[in-house]
Design a protein that fits this description.
Strand order of the largest sheet: 5-6-9-8-7
Number of strands: 33
Helix content: 25-40%
Largest sheet: 5 strands, mixed
Shape: elongated
Length: 1229
């Protein structure tokens, strides 16, 4: 086979002598033993590289594969960013597809075994192609790296001098030396200098061809390590940041040279990860030019970091163990809480040790990659997964601690899983976990990593990787109560030093959720790898935004500030542990989130720390809202003093009902609904007490949703209001059961109303007979609570549908008379449905109980269903409707649908939703917010309430990679995101509401496979239907509760459009901290062709509007000493159950102008009706008789004049139809 040499796009570069050396891919001489691997012996691999005659960077590849397999050539998919709508884009796609060969079929079968499914494997392949940079974009980067090497290699030596004088010299060139604290002083007796690097290498993931682009469009990182000469350092440079001071000057000299070089067109800046000056590096971004070294298309950043050789450094390694103290406050002139404090400085030591690891880590990752075929792909999956969840080094919102880890840890995690752990602190082997095989697929390795992270508690279990080297530090030195340990094979560097334990617990939580997602049906790949899960509104139950710019900790240690690198880092470390201790069992997880550090100009001396951070809380649904925090018993003086010191004036000694006397903290709330805000109150109190952060600077957006959930009676919580309605229902049940003189006894009264399952926007409020006559018309709405009456079985029911309806009417009349006669209700009447057919259920009993609640009861007769099904049956041999009724099969089918919806599936739905509400208390408030949101945007009339409840149930039963929401704002955000992302035209929404009846709260439920197949078949049969299809186990067709369609899917599309706009407002507001929740429920009227304005004073439900002022109404009513002074009601003083003239007008408009316009209305207190003309009738068309709408001649010739819609006339008709209720009609300009 012919072979040729071409430039290799990415290698382990050693450019210290102007040449490019690479580790050969086929190096098989370095085996990995079962007991570990020796990464230090890999240095000899660099001597085996091949170079071309002219010294340029080359590699040998086959003609059969012209483009680099690790990257992809011009025909590979070009990375277009991680997104939810696709994994990338391909500019060249082949249309000719050959039939599968035997080899292809074998690969398909293997993919199914190794990756779970063929589709999953194909998606992984597409993702890998999307991640790989184009080969043509890599060559300019290589050219730029050689240019940088040439500039650095030709730098002149700088004679050692005093650090302050050296910094002043560079300051004149516009470059500041970033001296970490404590900075050098005039009394400093050591010097800084510069000589060209001993070695220059490309290190990190780019060199090993395992790079993954950072999220938020920040591109790739190319790490360039410069080895500083050992003769610039002294044995005691590990003390008091002397090493970091010399390093800072060396870095500043490099920066000044790069800025002044005419060969380079680069933006040269400083970057200090986690705002720690000790981690400062140089970042280089390409300026767009036409030069051969312009790598701007690659969207990459070159990061120059400095390192020392562990073999030549004069600093003794044993002086850098975690137990050593290398920050001496007496020498720096600073004071501390403890005079002469010589506490260990493990974090400071670890950062210094990191300067010794770039080459050894490079070789170790190469070893893993060489011996584990799927390592590169598995590592890419793992890092993509981490990026999408904020466990990344860079991004607009990252989890605290992971910025300092970088991407190397994920590779070592995989290596540890394959080769096992080393001995622990006691000298015994690590946790007995069988190592993974080297031949596993990338998906299996990724899943193994998830399983490991899900079951490993880093707070109690340290990790020590296998190593063939002699142990530098005893394992016991890495173990600390508040520090995790994951020690690399060199046995000196701890990857997890400085990472908060709470961040690692959140990592464990997310790994568990990922495993659940991978075990479920549906879009597991998208949830795992493609979707950005960092948005605050859906990930956490509570988000507290804290301004820490003015924080003043009560106990601030100078040593802690030096140890953590900055005052802000020390503050955040203390803040996280304090908040976790205060919240205790109220939460399951918490984390600090902030943006990663941003590059800064070279003249800025110090990195900028974040002034605002977010605290994300995942609440325990059963503990979060408790009112009392219990402390130690009264006799424990030491613990009691510690408790009082921690809680401050909130702590008090209390006696409880069980006789115990303990220290406690009681949280008082004005309303029972506010108990869910107690965790925020705890955090605000602790921040104010311990860190001097006032409550105004620690805010949570969740409370802004409360006005949309409040009861109409402010003094009564919504939960209590719903419970009162349920109590009234139980009393009604007993009252009706005790009635005598009925032909059949009542066996069951079943609830079938949103008012009895906690999902109505407003809970039913009892009628106050004394205050009701004094209420204005716009506060007189009396909701009807639907119940179903079931009589005992009997053969005396007639086998005649029309007769059954008359018997029902007689039964209801008898019940009404009996209850009125016994004076057990205030009001009892039988009402008829105006539009019901002769064979449909058409009558109901309206009652107002003594407690003031209005109920509407209907009778369920099971014989109706069999009679309707017999009539609809094709052969009609068993039964038929008398011809005098003149009933068609279509009418019978409609009657059967109403029967099932009202008496069968409606009752099942109510029971399932009520059970879900009991398991997940936030489900009801979430559903109420969504109903309010749909109403506010005038779309609620088109969506049946059961469909809304099912959509909301989906995010609780199938939460994907999350737990079920514990707060209503989180549930609301997830439903909005679902409505935004749901492709309703291609897939139904599966809601396993009955399968999940016995599931634990928050556990994701799979839709039954057989039912899903039925649902899919029914969905595919609905050709041409565009709209929502929400299916349950009992309704695979998804049509029993009605549809969400609209003309040509207009309503479904409109909901998605509004959801998208709402999500953008929600996400941007949460990110910037400027969210206005009210704006989410405000609807612009500019999109409508005309808007009908109603008189709000005549709308009984107007008091339910979001902008209605209840306090004003109550104050006006109390101003009258004589109740008769108030104006009489327009509709009379008698209470009218479920009377809503605006809704009646809206229904009339829909019926009369069904072919003319589409109407929109908010049934929850809305005072406008929006209208859209059908576009086809606004276009001129030939005149015809009975057009169905008012027309206006617009021209035309001959016998067929052209006409169009007479909009003015139609609007005049509407105004006459709503005379007295309509105040004006406004047409669009």
């Amino acid at each position: 086979m012919k072979r040729r040499a071409v430039p290799h796009p990415r290698t382990l570069a050693n450019v210290s002598k102007g040449k490019h050396q690479e580790i050969p891919e086929d190096d098989a001489d370095q085996d990995i033993e079962d007991d570990g691997m020796d990464v230090t012996q890999l240095g000899q691999a660099e001597d085996n590289s091949e170079t071309s005659e002219d010294g340029e960077d080359e590699a040998i590849i086959d003609d059969d594969n012209e483009s680099d397999e690790e990257y992809g050539g011009e025909d590979r998919m070009e990375w277009d960013g991680m997104g939810e709508n696709g994994m990338g884009r391909s500019k060249h796609q082949k249309s000719d597809v050959a039939p599968p060969t035997t080899k292809d079929i074998k690969m398909i079968n293997e993919a199914s075994d190794l990756f779970g499914s063929n589709a999953f494997k194909l998606k992984i392949n597409a993702l890998m192609s999307a991640l790989a940079p184009k080969a043509s974009h890599v060559a300019p980067l290589e050219k730029c790296l050689f240019d940088i090497h040439a500039v650095i290699s030709n730098l002149a030596e700088v004679i050692p001098q005093h650090p302050i004088r050296a910094a002043e010299a560079l300051q004149g060139q516009g470059v500041t030396v970033v001296y970490p604290s404590p900075p050098p002083t005039e009394e400093t007796n050591w010097k800084v200098g510069f000589s060209k690097p001993t070695d220059i290498k490309v290190v990190g993931s780019w060199a090993n061809k395992v790079s993954v682009p950072a999220i938020d469009g920040r591109g790739l990182d190319i790490d360039l390590a410069l080895e500083m000469p050992a003769d610039l350092f002294q044995a005691k440079d590990h003390l008091n940041c002397r090493f970091f001071h010399k390093r800072a000057f060396y870095l500043a000299v490099i920066a000044a040279a790069l800025v002044s070089s005419p060969k380079l067109s680069l933006d040269v800046m400083y970057d200090s990860p986690q705002a720690d000056a000790r981690r400062t590096c140089i970042t280089l971004r390409q300026k767009p030019t036409t030069s051969p070294s312009d790598f701007s298309k690659l969207n990459a950043t070159i990061r120059i970091c400095l390192c020392l050789s562990p073999n030549t450094t004069p600093i003794a390694i044993n002086r850098l163990s975690p137990s050593h103290s290398n920050l001496r406050l007496a020498a720096t002139g600073k004071s501390d809480n403890l005079p002469g404090d010589i506490r260990p400085t493990p974090l400071y030591n670890n950062i210094l040790l990191q300067s010794l690891t770039p080459i050894t880590h490079l070789l170790a990752i190469y070893q893993y990659k060489s011996h584990i075929p799927a390592f590169s792909e598995a590592l890419a999956l793992l890092r993509v997964w981490a990026n999408q969840r904020g466990f990344a080094a860079r991004g607009k919102r990252i989890i605290r601690g992971f910025e300092a880890i970088g991407g190397a840890w994920w590779g070592f995690l995989l290596g540890m899983l394959v080769y096992g752990e080393g001995p622990g602190a006691d000298g015994k082997p690590g946790i007995r976990r069988k190592p993974l095989g080297t031949g596993l697929s990338s998906y299996q390795l990724f899943r193994g990593a998830m399983d490991y992270l899900a079951n490993r508690d880093f707070s109690t279990e340290s990790v020590f990787m296998k190593s063939n080297e002699s142990i530098k530090f005893p394992a016991s030195e890495f173990i600390s109560p508040n520090t995790a340990a994951f020690v690399d094979p060199s046995t000196i560097f701890n990857f997890l030093a400085g990472v908060p334990l709470e961040s690692l617990r959140l990592l464990r939580h997310d790994a568990k959720a990922t495993l659940r997602t991978l075990d479920q049906d549906g879009d597991a790949f998208d949830w795992t790898f493609m979707r950005d899960l960092r948005d605050l509104s859906t990930r956490f139950d509570v988000i507290i935004r804290i301004d820490i710019s003015g924080a003043t900790p009560r106990a601030e240690s100078a040593l802690d500030i030096l140890e953590h690198g900055s005052r802000t880092n020390a503050l955040l470390n203390s803040l996280m542990s304090t908040i976790r201790h205060a919240l205790n069992t109220r939460i399951t997880h918490c984390a600090i989130l902030h943006s990663s550090s941003a590059p800064r100009p070279l003249d800025e001396p110090t990195p900028s720390s974040p002034t605002t951070v977010e605290i994300g809380l995942l609440l325990d649904p059963f503990e979060a809202s408790r009112l009392v925090d219990h402390g130690p018993a009264a006799g424990d003086e030491a613990a009691g003093a510690e408790f009082r010191e921690f809680w401050g004036p909130k702590a008090e000694l209390r006696r409880f009902k069980d006789g115990s006397i303990v220290e406690s903290v009681v949280w008082e709330v004005p309303n029972p609904d506010d108990r869910i805000h107690i965790p925020v109150m705890v955090v605000q109190h602790i921040l104010d007490l311990h860190f001097g952060v006032p409550k105004s600077q620690a805010t949570a957006v969740q409370a802004a949703y409360d006005p949309f959930l409040r009861s109409q009676i402010p003094s009564v919580g919504t939960g209590a209001a719903f419970r009162q309605a349920l109590v009234s229902f139980d009393e009604l049940f007993r009252t009706i059961k005790d009635l005598g003189d009925l032909p059949l006894s009542i066996s069951q009264i079943s609830p079938a109303s949103e008012y009895l399952r906690y999902t109505s926007v407003h809970p039913a409020t009892p009628l106050d007979s004394q205050r009701f006559p004094n209420l204005p018309d716009n506060a007189r709405y009396i909701p009807a609570i639907d119940v179903i009456l079931t009589f005992e079985g009997s053969t005396r029911w007639p086998e005649d549908l029309a007769a059954i309806q008359k018997v029902k009417l007689a039964f209801l009349e008898q019940i009404a008379r009996a209850m009125s006669g016994q004076k057990v209700v205030r009001h009892a009447a039988v009402v008829l449905d105006a539009d019901a057919g002769i064979i449909e259920d058409n009558c109901a009993l309206e009652l107002i109980t003594l407690a003031g609640y209005a109920f509407r009861g209907r009778i369920h007769c099971d014989i109706e269903r069999s009679l309707l099904e017999k009539f609809i049956a094709p052969k009609q041999k068993h039964w038929s409707v008398p011809t005098a009724y003149d009933v068609t099969k279509a009418q019978a089918k409609s009657a059967l649908v109403i029967y099932k919806r009202r008496f069968v599936y409606g009752l099942q739905h109510h029971s399932a939703i009520a059970a879900l509400q009991q398991r997940c208390p936030s489900y009801g408030p979430t559903t109420r917010l969504i109903k309010r949101w749909l109403g506010a945007h005038m779309l609620a009339p088109y969506v049946p309430i059961e469909i809304i409840e099912l959509v909301c149930a989906h995010v609780y039963l199938c939460p994907g990679p999350f737990d079920a929401p514990v707060t209503a704002p989180t549930g609301f955000a997830r439903v909005i995101r679902l409505l935004k992302e749901w492709n309703y035209g291609e897939t139904p929404l599966y809601v396993p509401q009955y399968t999940g009846a016995g599931a634990d709260p928050g556990v994701s439920v799979n839709f039954p496979t057989d039912k899903k197949a039925q649902a899919d078949q029914a969905f595919r049969s609905r050709v041409g239907v565009v709209g929502w299809t929400v299916v349950t186990e009992e309704d695979p067709s998804g049509i029993l509760f009605g549809s969400v369609l609209g003309p040509k899917g207009l309503i479904a599309a409109r909901i998605r459009q509004v959801a998208t706009a709402t999500w953008e407002c929600l996400d941007s507001g949460m990110t910037a901290g400027t969210l206005d929740v009210t704006a989410l429920f405000q609807h612009p009227l500019d999109d409508y062709d005309f808007v009908i304005h109603l008189n709000p004073s005549l709308l009984p439900r107007h008091s339910q509007a979001t902008h209605y002022d209840h306090t004003k109404r109550l104050s006006e009513a109390s101003a009258y000493k004589n109740p008769d002074a108030l104006h009489a009601s327009t509709y009379g003083q008698a209470p009218r159950i479920d009377f809503d003239p605006a809704a009646l007008l809206y229904q009339d408009l829909k019926r009369i102008y069904a072919d003319t316009a589409l109407f929109f209305y908010d049934p929850i207190g809305g005072d406008v009706i929006g209208g859209l003309w059908y576009p086809q009738i606004r276009n001129p068309r030939p005149f015809k008789v009975y057009a169905g709408y008012s027309t206006l001649a617009v021209g035309g010739e001959g016998k067929k004049p052209m006409v169009t819609l007479n909009e003015k006339a139609v609007l005049s008709e509407i105004e006459r139809l709503g005379s007295g209720l309509i105040t004006k009609i406004v047409r669009a300009a």
